[in-house]
Q: What sequence folds into this?
């Protein structure tokens, strides 16, 4: 390395005693400790570490926000926070434009900051202590702005990731270890240009574990192992695999766990939340709604009045490829077109590789086949040996487990020809819309710098903007539905010029569809069908509206599709998994990412290219709704005995038996199933929050609450029925974290509808009520009057009743319900509404 060696850090230390600050004595390096590390000495006193075992970290917003340095710093924080056997962790707290302060108790990473750097120094960490025990209170790192730092260093650059990792080691108390190791490690005092030391050596892991060891006493009887978990994933890709924490307490001791996050939405799940004696907690991350970045959180386990923490960090890498499509045009026999560029963005160091595929020959090349992010690539095409025509190809990039593609199109033409692209355009709009929908068309001339042209449309609904000009140029073809009825319309735009192949035509197809709309209050739980309630991630919803899909269709396999019969539903910007679609109703599973929302979000419905006005929906963590046996969300619920048979009038619930209550909207689970996928049977996916089952107000012992295996969005609560019941057909309610479901019955009488649905006021009327769990002893209650009815057995049971005109005095809505005259203590059925019109 010779003369190119540069000093990696200069440590300046001041001692803070009470409210007064003065300069402490020179920093000494203590003797090497087992493992090959040293810690900072303040005179004769060895640093005792940082209280709380953590630093809140702020980045210099002007230099480290939203660029390649940003994710690198987060990665280094995660590296130090993930050492097994240590409780140390760095918490990202945001960006700041303020100068670093030695008295604010946080760590600020600054580029420059006015610090007077000695010659040859790359970076400096300033540490402040409090008290005679030399306990670290504040650390700030300054990077030399005159140094060429890079996240992908060349021969003359210094590796920013290695330098920052070294400085963060100083921040919590480690010193240089040059004399302790024959080979340089992260905490070596010098580094050469281009050299990389991005992972911790034994010397570093031993040092951080020495300063911040995992307590074996567990703070009075409770320990968690490991003390920290580190997750890495790619934004938009598969979530990282779950990890586990071992909880150690005395046998028979009850413990409980809670989760907190310092950044981002509720992405951290841990379950179970309680137990007795030694146990295990599964930690699962919900990364679907998270943008790239660094996230931190903690899991606190309490037992016997004491608590201990495990720290969780997530480094989520964002990757992107721009642009997604390239278009080249060349003249046969002429030199190749100029190359175009593709940029690969993402966290520094993420590897990528590319494959090229073409149709019609090997005319497409890339400047490099692989490398590490970030990257700037050139794409080359050649027309040599190619006949005039259109050629297509694709570049596929593999980036950290994701695949991104760039489509490439090459048009080879004869010199002087008019080139119009595309030759066919498809547009769509809602009937009655006065807003034009447009598509761009490019007009080029092969081998000629300019050529006059004009464009005309053959249909009154289609306009060309502009109608004439000089090539090369771009025009817009704009269609307006206006008074057109629903249907598909066709037209042609002719483009004429002095070129030998003039005129050229563009075929335009215009589809006019009925307006797409979501009904007011039309987003409801598919179980309860109650308007105005909040929705939750993973819940089965029904969306009612107009022209939501082109036809009726149902999903046939897992994972459930996100598009069916031209229907797509986005909730919070995420495509929902579709179960059933029709023009007027869609059943779907709400995206699990809604668990990250609080308050409200937007639902967007699309039928092909036509969008409905956005609907606003409120969102909650839980929105339980119990399914009924009928389609109106009321009456008897979807509840089964232990053998799977449905609880009904003829097979009522039995005290002491286990029953299964089927519902949706139970909220987050303790593992990530993936939207549209069936829930597993082993291991079962448990509800993350506390679930209660109330039977006539009595709390049943819950045996399981979570996702129903083999289904998407369907939940189940399995519980033991209390030993004493006040009714044969009890009322059932499920509560999740205090949020109550709709109330249904276990086997009670249930009404679906009444026919006819409307009668005249003042006249006797005979109507038929249809439902299930009805009986010959049932009577119909109209207002406060009980009327006898005639029972019949059909596909649905019926009760026919004649209502005297005196009970129908005026127009309005009249609720009807059923009671069992042989069992007056049983609850009546749900109500159906009879409409009474004027005489």
A:
């Amino acid at each position: 390395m010779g003369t190119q060696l540069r000093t990696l850090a200069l440590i300046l230390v001041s001692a803070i005693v009470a409210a007064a600050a003065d300069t402490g004595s020179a920093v000494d390096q203590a003797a090497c400790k087992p493992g090959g590390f040293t810690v900072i000495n303040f005179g004769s006193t060895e640093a005792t570490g940082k209280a709380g075992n953590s630093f809140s970290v702020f980045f210099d917003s002007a230099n480290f926000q939203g660029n390649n340095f940003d994710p690198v710093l987060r990665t280094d924080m995660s590296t130090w926070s993930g050492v097994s056997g240590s409780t140390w962790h760095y918490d990202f707290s945001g960006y700041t434009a303020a100068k670093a302060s030695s008295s604010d108790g946080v760590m600020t990473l600054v580029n420059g900051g006015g610090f007077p750097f000695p010659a040859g120094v790359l970076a400096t960490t300033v540490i402040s202590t409090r008290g005679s025990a030399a306990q670290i209170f504040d650390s700030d790192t300054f990077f030399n702005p005159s140094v060429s730092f890079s996240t992908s260093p060349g021969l003359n650059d210094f590796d920013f990731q290695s330098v920052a990792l070294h400085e963060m080691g100083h921040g919590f108390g480690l010193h240089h270890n040059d004399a302790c190791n024959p080979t340089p490690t992260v905490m070596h005092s010098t580094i050469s240009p281009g050299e990389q030391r991005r992972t911790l050596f034994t010397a570093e892991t031993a040092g951080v574990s020495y300063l911040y060891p995992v307590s074996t006493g567990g703070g009075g009887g409770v320990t968690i192992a490991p003390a920290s978990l580190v997750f890495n994933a790619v934004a938009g890709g598969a979530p990282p695999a779950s990890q586990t924490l071992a909880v150690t307490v005395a046998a028979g001791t009850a413990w409980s766990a809670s989760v907190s996050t310092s950044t981002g939405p509720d992405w951290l799940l841990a379950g179970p939340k309680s137990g007795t004696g030694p146990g295990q907690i599964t930690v699962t991350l919900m990364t679907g709604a998270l943008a790239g970045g660094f996230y931190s959180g903690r899991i606190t386990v309490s037992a016997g009045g004491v608590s201990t923490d495990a720290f969780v960090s997530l480094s989520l890498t964002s990757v992107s490829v721009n642009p997604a499509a390239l278009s080249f045009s060349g003249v046969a026999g002429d030199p190749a077109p100029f190359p175009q560029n593709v940029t690969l963005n993402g966290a520094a160091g993420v590897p990528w590789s590319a494959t090229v595929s073409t149709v019609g020959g090997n005319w497409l090349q890339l400047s490099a086949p692989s490398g590490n992010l970030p990257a700037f690539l050139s794409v080359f095409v050649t027309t040599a040996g190619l006949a005039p025509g259109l050629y297509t190809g694709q570049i596929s990039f593999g980036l950290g487990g994701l695949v991104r593609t760039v489509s490439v199109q090459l048009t080879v033409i004869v010199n002087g020809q008019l080139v119009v692209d595309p030759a066919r355009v498809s547009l769509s709009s809602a009937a009655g819309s006065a807003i034009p929908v447009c598509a761009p068309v490019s007009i080029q001339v092969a081998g000629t710098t300019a050529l006059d042209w004009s464009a005309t449309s053959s249909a009154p609904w289609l306009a060309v903007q502009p109608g004439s000009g000089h090539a090369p140029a771009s025009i817009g073809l704009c269609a307006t539905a206006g008074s057109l009825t629903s249907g598909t319309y066709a037209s042609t735009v002719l483009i004429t010029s002095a070129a030998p192949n003039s005129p050229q035509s563009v075929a335009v197809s215009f589809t006019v569809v009925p307006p797409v709309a979501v009904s007011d209050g039309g987003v409801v739980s598919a179980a309860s069908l109650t308007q105005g309630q909040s929705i939750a991630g993973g819940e089965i919803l029904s969306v009612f509206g107009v022209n939501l899909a082109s036809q009726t269709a149902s999903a046939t396999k897992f994972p459930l599709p996100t598009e069916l019969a031209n229907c797509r539903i986005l909730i919070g910007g995420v495509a929902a998994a579709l179960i059933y679609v029709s023009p007027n109703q869609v059943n779907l599973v709400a995206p699990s990412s809604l668990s990250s929302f609080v308050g409200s979000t937007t639902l967007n419905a699309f039928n092909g290219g036509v969008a409905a006005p956005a609907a606003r929906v409120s969102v909650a963590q839980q929105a339980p709704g119990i399914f009924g046996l009928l389609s109106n969300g009321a009456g008897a619920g979807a509840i089964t005995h232990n053998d799977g048979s449905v609880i009904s009038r003829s097979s009522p619930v039995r005290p002491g038996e286990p029953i299964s209550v089927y519902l949706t909207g139970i909220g987050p689970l303790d593992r990530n199933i993936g939207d549209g996928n069936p829930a597993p049977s082993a291991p079962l996916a448990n509800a993350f929050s506390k679930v209660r089952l109330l039977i006539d107000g009595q709390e049943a012992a819950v045996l399981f609450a979570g996702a129903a295996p083999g289904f998407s969005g369907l939940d189940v609560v399995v519980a033991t029925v209390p030993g004493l019941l006040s009714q044969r057909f009890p009322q059932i309610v499920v509560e999740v974290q205090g949020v109550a479901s709709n109330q249904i019955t276990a086997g009670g009488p249930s009404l679906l509808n009444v026919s006819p649905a409307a009668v005249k006021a003042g006249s006797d009327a005979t109507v038929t009520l249809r439902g299930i769990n009805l009986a010959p002893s049932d009577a119909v209650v109209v207002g406060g009057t009980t009327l006898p009815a005639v029972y019949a057995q059909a596909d649905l049971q019926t009760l026919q009743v004649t209502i005297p005109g005196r009970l129908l005095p005026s127009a309005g809505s009249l609720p009807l319900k059923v009671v069992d005259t042989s069992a007056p203590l049983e609850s009546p059925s749900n109500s159906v509404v009879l409409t009474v019109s004027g005489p």
